[in-house]
Specification:
207 residues, mainly alpha, 12 helices
Amino acid sequence: MKRLYLRHEKLWLALAGLAEYLLGYFGANSFTVGRQAATLDTDLDRMIPFVVPWVFVYSLAYPLCFTPAIFVADPRRCRTVFVAFTLAMAMGVTTFIAFPVVMPRPPLPEHATGGWLLALTWSLDKPYNCFPSLHVALDSLAALAIYPSNPRAGLAVGIVAALISLSTMFVKQHYWLDVVSGFAVAVIAVRAANSRVLRRCVRARAL
């Protein structure tokens, strides 16, 4: 069993990360529905236009956060990335439950390009789980995780992650404070996962 796990370790870690995301994110989202929630609306948020076609960029966030499984070859590094992913999820879900933030959604224009995709996104993802943005956190984390071993791929992922960060505001999924806090979560999670204590735990777990 252990040999089978080690042979396909990156796949198992990716599947575990996907399970964490589905259970943690949507579990917190369902728990928050109907609760009193804050808004973080600012003048800057009101200045940002609602541009439906940006949903195509927004949707790239789902596969992008798993790109370390492709570009990070070292098994020990993959374990560290998984720890960082888990820490980011824990910070996000804990905040969602303790401090719910809601994003009021504008009317969806008829016949807008990408309107069907945004309508589907909104039907699956209720307007909570805003602060911090896990879209921003997990995709930024992917770029930060890939860059040390593969700078070109890390830079490419970072550029796409930056565009996704913008898209979260254009499709009115997040406030700008959500975006900033999401990036902060990524940095904290990566730094914590690379700390000596957690790296020792990862190495010990692999023995």
